[in-house]
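Ticket #4471: structure output looks truncated?

Reporter: J.K.
Steps to reproduce: submitted the chain below (965 residues) through the standard prediction queue, then opened the result file.
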Amino acid sequence: MYKVKLGDEHPSYATSLNNLATLYYTMDRYEEAEPLMLKAVEIRKVQLGEGNPEYATSLNNLATMYAEMGRYADAEPLYLQSTEIRKAQLGEDHPDYAASLNNLATLYYTMDRYEEAEPLILKAVEIRKAKPGEDHPDYATSLNNLATLFKSMGRYHEAEPLYKQSMGIRKTQLREDHPSYAQSLNDLALLYQIMGRYTEAEPLYAQAIEIDKVQLGEDHRNFATSLNNLAMLYEDMGRYDEAETLYTQALDTRKTQLGENHPDYANSLNNLALLYKSMRRYGHAESLCEQALEIRKAQLGEYHPDYATSLNNLALLYRSMGRYDEAEPLYTQARGIYKTKLGEDHPNYATSLNNLALLYKNMGRYNEAEPLLLQGQQVYLHQLRNVFPSLSEKEKEQFLNTFNFNFELFHSFAGKRHGSNPAITATQYDNALLLKGLLLQSSSQMRERILAGGDTTAICLFEDWQALKRQWLKESEIPKSEREQVGIVPDATLEKANTLEKELSRRSEAFAEAIDTVRTTWWEVQQELKPGESAIELIRYTWHDKNWTDTVHYAALIVTPDTKGHPHLVLLENGNELEAQGAQSYKSAFATRGASRVAGGDNPIPADSLYAYFWQPIQTALDSLGGAGKVYLSPDGVYHTLNLQTLKNPETGRYLLETLDIERVGSTKNLVKKKKQPAPNNNAVLAGYPSYPASPEAVASAQKRFQQGQAARILTASLGSSGYGTYQTYRAIDASRSSISPLPGTLTEVEQVASILDGEGIPTLALLENAASEDLLKKVKSPRILHIATHGFFEPQREQQAEGLNREMLMSGLGQETVTENPYLRCGLYLAGAETTLKNRGNLDFQRPAGQEDGILTAYEATLLDLRGTELVVLSACETGLGVTKNGEGVYGLQRAFQIAGAETVIFSLWKIADQQTQEMMGLFYKNWLQKDMTKRQAFKAAQQTIKEKYEDPYFWGAFVMIGG
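Returned output as attached by the reporter:
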């Protein structure tokens, strides 16, 4: 119409051309859009002049289309010209000027010119925040773009809150089925994927795919991008068949809509090639890698990071194929580009260092590989320092998993390198000091700093966080069908708790202390050792030869006061045997009783040979280094499940308990970074002999009496004259019974310990029978001593049904859905009313007073106790040291939970313990400690030795282990 009425040189005709062209390029019909855009630009240039804002708009639109087409060199001058016109004609606070800044910044970070992009996007955010305002989709776009820039720069902790803020605005202002909202879902999911948070990423990708499919269609580039992103996630998760289907569909769409020269098409080729490499379909992978490389070279140039990625990936393929000479120059070229374009602190640069190092390792060029591996580690540690303070514990673990394998790989390298460079063990040891128990340190220190810091706002946030965690557990206990009826969503509560935890982590800056700005080194540990002492870091790792294998190795790194130059290395290359036959044989030999012990072929390693398997190589090394009377041992892997002092040397016939003082520590760094002295509390709380069948009313009545001050400080009742001197009850759940057996020895134990404490002037509260309840235990705050004597349980994930008690429920009384991903919910302590709870799960007529606990204290709940300043926690129950073992972090179970809660020292058990011998040993321990002026550790060992003299079998004296100061 405009062409007929006004002529084909009129500005209004240019507007119609521009609008039609915009429609076409939105539909990916670039060949039709470009001539219309060019014509509109020309008309406005002639009719309106080069200083007119409408001319600037035409330039901006043409540049945007060129950027979409991957023609970055054509887009940049147009964006620059448009930006200058708008700045001059409209001013620096105008939304159109902000749009130009935003677009130019987007182009620059697409081209990986991050330093140029950041000030532009920050300025655009500032302008759009003021006008059109913080609720406008344009402001959301700038936030999203800033987040993407930070993500590309490896500044993940800054990206996430911006993505979430942008997504919230788009959800409110545009609705949840808008393509821009789908973009937010995609971008946040990709960030989560990079950080190893796969379970959070997958539903976001799936939702984005559904929106793009409905709103844009299956032939749209955005839909192809969503498919591609989900495929990348599936590849990372090892779901190759699903990934291949999505990659292929995305590739076909991009080929049709964008053409075979577009950078996005090259991305699809690259991703599919990497998948085929993982599937060992090398022929297919090579041709796709080469094609992607050529496209990126032509479209992006030889100095673009994406081109470096193609070089890296082709080299990676060649290395996998054994074509090392062809891989080396490609790796070297990629490394140079990453260094120049991204900087030496970028994760991609670290990846290139490690890849080249691995190539040199495979080629036997260890001298060249070692400095590259070390430099790469420094980049990852830089990432840890920057990112950790903004994450929850779960997110920290997931993020650490994305690159922790590089440190694990270093141990394999050190095993081969050690012969020519023994000093490499110094780096191994220092890395262990930095990373072992890092998550436990971070969690504990966050709490300590928040609660001791005096910041009332932070303390309130901490209390709110704990309340949300309790709320989540209560909600999870409700059957799913009932939750859905009343609209209870535990996942939403958990997300709120996670968000608060991240805020607390930021406030506490826990990581700054947890990993130490100045790193602890092996020689600092050495300075703390006295003559005759040694420090050992045990490290479990998967062996990497030319590729990853299924073989497990252990490295024992030994430091003595006389160590010169570097720690001594003992390699235990039979890790698979230790963890399979060795662990089973140990359990059969020590952790079971009498006829229940496995014999013959099911016990492949005789008890007398376990010393040779687990300890002899280390002892031989200690002897060669001058011997040791005391060893500070930081265990890993299967060694967490052993009490080494129960091992008998077949040559001498003596147990390690008799010949060596082994002090188990979370990290030998603790010798240097000693914990603060506990608060000067001098009271004790003892809980034992719970009434497992107690009714809710009985528990409530006991609690009321306690709160009214009617509970006895020290027990006077006794079972000592009732014939229990020879009882043989075990603190274990009998799966064949429908009830929880009472433990008379725990009453004797509590009475005995209370008498000892009273004699030393230590105020003591004893919680027994109905008062030995979860409710009262949770009210305890920072006693000097907390002693709990009862039944404990640990339920491996493979044994999810609770035999005997209730086949529909687990031993925690929770459903399988709740406990699957949280090991802290698969172990705990039974307290008053626990049996009643287990029997009435699912009984709709069963009611408990509002707010009353269920009598089962899980490790999850134990983490929420306030035990700051508590000197000692004794978990006098069976299997309180068991849980889920994770490399470098120890055992996720009760003993870790009480450490997180603040306990300095924890005594726990590794197997089902005998009631009588346990109460005897506990009485001896407290007498030794409090009456004979021994240290806790000396008292504990002396008690074990006394029980051993009376009961030779390690089953009776070896179950308990002490960790901490």
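Triage note (M.O.): checked the attachment and the full token line is present. The two ends are 87 Å apart (CA to CA).
Status: closed, working as intended.
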